[in-house]
Automatic annotation (TrEMBL), chain A:
Biological process, per Gene Ontology: phosphate ion transmembrane transport
SMART domains listed in its UniProt record: AAA
Single GO molecular function: ATP binding
GO cellular component, one term: membrane
Presence of keyword DNA-binding: no
Family annotation (InterPro entries): AAA+_ATPase, ABC_transporter-like_ATP-bd, P-loop_NTPase, PstB-like
Organism (species): Candidatus Desantisbacteria bacterium CG1_02_38_46
Top-level division of the source organism's lineage: Bacteria
Protein name: Phosphate ABC transporter ATP-binding protein
PROSITE patterns hit by this protein: ABC_TRANSPORTER_2
Pfam families: ABC_tran
Domain ABC transporter: 4-245
Keywords: ATP-binding, Nucleotide-binding
Lineage: Bacteria, Candidatus Desantisiibacteriota
Transmembrane domains' residue ranges: none
From TrEMBL, chain B:
GO biological process, alphabetically ordered: phosphate ion transport
Localization annotation: Cell membrane
Organism: Candidatus Desantisbacteria bacterium CG1_02_38_46
Protein known as: Phosphate transport system permease protein
Transmembrane segments: 12-32, 62-95, 107-130, 142-164, 255-278
Record Pfam families: BPD_transp_1
């Protein structure tokens, strides 16, 4: 089943075309990786999936992005509701300067859940789901921005898990972390994939090879090749993909 | 050669910095030296709790003026803070950067208008308005609060805008990506992150309101009596000093310095409270 399907997507920053006629499908409950050299449009594509690009002035977009068979760029779509279902984890961990507890319940409060007992229950469940509970259960009142980066990034995932989205978009979620923390986050991704559809942008080809099931290779705003990760990394159809994978450029 | 030059520059900068602090100390010591003898003479408690101010008969009680100062300052904050904050939020979150770049310096310009001009406008426009519509003499706590509330706007607006704009973009993106609306993002994340800067703007505004003299003299009525309502006239500690210093001598003169001492203490206390409020979380 395709959770998100992108059709003929063109995207412009002013006059600069950052995405060229992209067509790609993200399947339910697997991890899809987007790889490619810097500036090829990976982040741009990812941010089209939950309409975060709407926040940038002067952008133009054409084509279709269907989330569960509904075009999210059609007129009657509620962006707030969309983002509740398609959450995002950023490159630099960006927990709010609030307590750990308040970070996790943020999304719930935003979406109108206020009963104390439910909040506590969900905080415990979300922190457990992201492997933070044991470390955090006595520190729920500490300020999130003072935690180690890895815990901050986990917390950012926990606050998404709390609102139970269907898709989690991750833009280079490990690039600010050391290798050990990266390994832990990757483990977490495997865990999360059981319940969520995950799209990850990464610079790190080993990471893409390790964690993803499907993989898309992008170059200069175009999707060059898309397929299962094993195929992309062992016998790609396109010569450019081959060159990138073997490290001849990028 | 270069080394001696560096040393000379460093030493002279140090001296200049020291002299600035030294002058501050000198002023404080001078005020205390001139003011405290009278406080001891009439007793501190009597001085601050009596409201009988008859300097020529040797009665010095400034209670009504302490009240006047607190009332007018509180009123100025009640008017200035919500107005200033909403303005800062609107300008930094809802107005395009280009327009902000013009509006912010304009607002900062308002801080440069001499206080006597604010007082004058208050006297000819605001005071009659209050007298005709709300009753009382017009010259009143309300008039003082409104004028001061306007005068502290530039301080509050400009410093709050800086604080709000210093909030990292990533916080906003994080919030919006969770499906929060713009307004939820502002009051649940941005204002909390900008909190210490916003409180600083309020403290500075409060300092300006307590210290302002000229505008208050012109609109607040200056009567030495305990104010019963916001339509009553009142005298503040600063205006008391300014109004009487010109002809005061002997004990009277000392009593005015003593007024300064009390003002000094009040400002200290309010600053400590405000700082504590920021530190707490
Ligand atoms: N806000 C913007 N305004 C104008 N151009 C932009 C903007 N953001 C990105 N671009 C341009 O769009 C192109 C694609 O950017 P994007 O951030 O999607 O690349 P990326 O593949 O994520 O790169 P990286 O690996 O460096 O993150 C780049 O050429 C970039 O310069
Ligand atoms: Mg990127």
């Amino acid at each position: 089943m395709n959770t998100i399907e992108v059709k003929n997507l063109n995207f412009y920053y002013g006059n600069f075309q950052a995405l060229k006629d992209i067509g790609i499908a993200f399947q339910e409950k697997i991890i899809t990786a987007l790889i490619g050299p810097s500036g090829c449009g990976k982040s741009t594509l990812l941010r089209c999936l939950n309409r975060m690009n709407d926040l940038i002035e002067g952008v133009k977009i054409s084509g279709e992005v269907d989330f569960k068979d509904k075009n999210i760029y059609s007129k009657n779509i509620d962006v707030v509701e969309l983002r509740r279902h398609v959450g995002m984890v950023f490159q630099r961990p960006n927990p709010f300067p609030l307590s750990v507890f308040d970070n996790v319940v943020y999304g719930l409060k935003v979406h109108g859940v206020t009963q104390a007992f439910r909040l506590e229950e969900i905080v415990e469940r979300s922190l457990k789901a992201t492997g933070l509970w044991d470390e955090m259960k006595d520190k729920l009142n500490s300020i999130a921005t003072e935690l180690p980066l890895e815990q901050q990034q986990r917390l950012c995932m926990a606050r998404l898990v709390a609102i139970e989205p269907e898709v989690i978009l991750m833009d280079e979620p490990c690039s600010a972390l050391d290798p050990i923390a990266t390994a832990k986050i990757e483990e977490l991704m495997f865990e999360l994939k059981k319940k969520y559809t995950i799209v990850i942008v990464t610079h790190n080809m080993q990471q893409a090879a390790r964690v993803s099931d499907c993989c898309g290779f992008m170059l200069l705003g175009e999707l060059i090749e898309f397929g299962t990760t094993s195929k992309i990394f062992t016998s790609p159809d396109n010569q450019k993909t081959q060159d990138y994978i073997t490290g001849r450029f990028g | 050669m270069k080394n001696t030059k560096e040393v000379v520059i460093e030493k002279s900068l140090f001296l200049i910095a020291l002299s600035a602090i030294f002058m501050l100390f000198l002023i404080a010591i001078f005020i205390f030296k001139e003011g405290t003898p009278l406080i001891f003479k009439v007793g501190f408690k009597n001085f601050v709790t009596s409201s009988k101010w008859f300097p020529l008969e040797g009665q010095f009680g400034i209670f009504s003026m302490i009240l006047g100062t607190l009332w007018i300052t509180a009123g100025a904050l009640i008017i200035g803070v919500p107005l200033g904050l909403s303005c800062a939020i609107f300008l930094s979150e809802f107005v395009p950067r280009r327009i902000m770049a013009i509006l912010k310096p304009t607002i900062e310009l308002l801080a440069g208008i001499p206080s006597v001009v604010y007082g004058f406008i208050g006297m000819v426009v605001l005071v009659p308005l209050i007298r005709e519509n709300l009753g009382g003499p017009g010259l009143s706590i309300l008039a003082g609060s409104i004028i001061l509330g306007i005068m502290i706007l530039p301080t509050i607006i400009s410093i709050s805008i800086d604080a709000i704009q210093a909030v990292p973009r990533s916080y906003r993106e994080g919030s919006l990506a969770m499906g929060a609306t713009k307004w939820q993002t502002i009051h649940m994340v941005v204002l909390k992150a900008a909190r210490s800067g916003i409180v600083a703007s309020i403290i500075l505004g409060m300092g300006r309101a307590i210290g302002e003299t000229m505008a208050v003299i012109m609109v607040a009525g200056n009567a030495v009596k305990i104010p019963r309502s916001i339509l009553d006239p009142a005298r503040t500690l600063t205006t008391n000093i300014a109004l009487e210093m010109g002809f005061a001598a002997g004990d009277h003169r000392q009593a005015l310095f003593a007024t300064g001492v009390v003002l000094f203490i009040i400002i200290m206390i309010l600053n400590i409270i405000a700082n504590y409020a920021v530190r707490k979380r």
